[in-house]
Amino acid sequence: MSRTLDQERAAFAWKRTEGCDAEFGRRISGTPALIMQNGLMQALAYYKEKGHVRVWQPIAEWVAKSMQLEPPRGADPQNQDELFCSLMKKLQDAEADQLLFATEEALAIAEWLRRWAKARA
């Protein structure tokens, strides 16, 4: 039995919101609007700059997985900077339809993260 894409998103977000606090809930609640207003790359860069790893990392992980982005050869899968840089490079080089797909996936996973954060608060 296989799960739907939305079930996969929900399960992924559920794991990433384990132990979340009210601060995470506040930050993630504005993420879909930030992505829509500024774009995916700018939103991720903003959260990375501010040090909000719990916000940008699950979105980046999901988008990278959705785009079938392989980690750089010899990369440490736990290294946040490598994940961020390889995803940003992929998004910069993406065709318009690929960037739209990545943005849609980011919005979808951000919505699940927001829902689970509220439910777990």
Mean pLDDT across all amino acids? 91
Shape: globular
- Give the termini distance in whole angstroms: 32 Å
Beta content comes to under 5%
Task: Give me the secondary-structure topology.
Layout: H1 5-16, H2 22-29, H3 31-38, H4 40-49, H5 53-66, H6 80-93, H7 96-120
Structure characterization notes:
The chain has seven helices and no strands. Helices cover about 75% and strands about 0% of the residues. Helix 1 (about 5-15) packs across helix 7 (about 95-120), helix 2 (about 20-30) runs antiparallel to helix 7 and helix 4 packs antiparallel against helix 5 (about 55-65). The relative contact order is 0.20. It is globular and about 40 Å long. By secondary structure, the chain is mainly alpha-helical.
Gist of the model:
The chain is mainly alpha-helical and 121 residues long. Helix content is 75%, strand content 0%.
Notable characteristics:
121 residues, mainly alpha, Peroxidase, domain 1, 7 helices, 75% helix, 0% strand
